[in-house]
Amino acid sequence: MAEGELPAVLILDIGGTHGVLEDLAALLKKHFHLITMKEFLGNKEEMRKKIQSVFVFECRPTIDRELLESLPNLKVIGNSGVGVDHLDLKMISSFGVKVTNTPHAVADSTADIGMALMLASGRRLVEGNVLNFLG
């Protein structure tokens, strides 16, 4: 990586059904050079040595042995979610690659929804709303 050049991060895509949200991509672009999987596969020889990180968004791209073998300078896989069950941590670490995630990113939201569901259930809110709607 040349001086002043941003570190390259592999992502599946920007926008669309499975790509990184456009607002999130704009934030990432301030700190990283984003390379989509399509760009990577279209020019693997040039791109493979530039990529130092993979950003996994909604379990994509899939991290498998073939991908890890094709990225000799890969240092870290950043997972945008809480869990890492979809990642083979033992295999990834055998390549000397670290894995990160965001363990507390949705803790408050999850607690809020849990409390709302308990209150709604205890007060039979959904049943009352259906009866009110039908009545």
Structure description:
The protein has 2 domains: 8-103, Rossmann fold, CATH 3.40.50; 106-134, no CATH class. 41% of the residues lie in helices and 16% in strands. It contains 7 helices and 5 strands, in the order βαβααβαβαβαα.
Side by side, the strands of the main sheet go 2-1-3-4-5
CATH superfamily of the largest domain: NAD(P)-binding Rossmann-like Domain
Silhouette: elongated
CATH topology of the largest domain: Rossmann fold
Number of helices: 7
Structural class: alpha/beta
Question: How many individual β-strands?
Answer: 5
Spatial separation of the terminal alpha carbons: 68 Å
Approximately what portion of the residues adopt beta-strand conformation? 15-25%
Average pLDDT confidence is 90
TL;DR?
The protein contains 7 helices and 5 strands.
What is the topological layout?
Blueprint: E1 8-11, H1 22-29, E2 33-36, H2 37-42, H3 44-47, E3 51-56, H4 65-70, E4 76-79, H5 89-94, E5 98-100, H6 107-122, H7 125-134
Parallel strand pairs: 1-2, 1-3, 3-4, 4-5
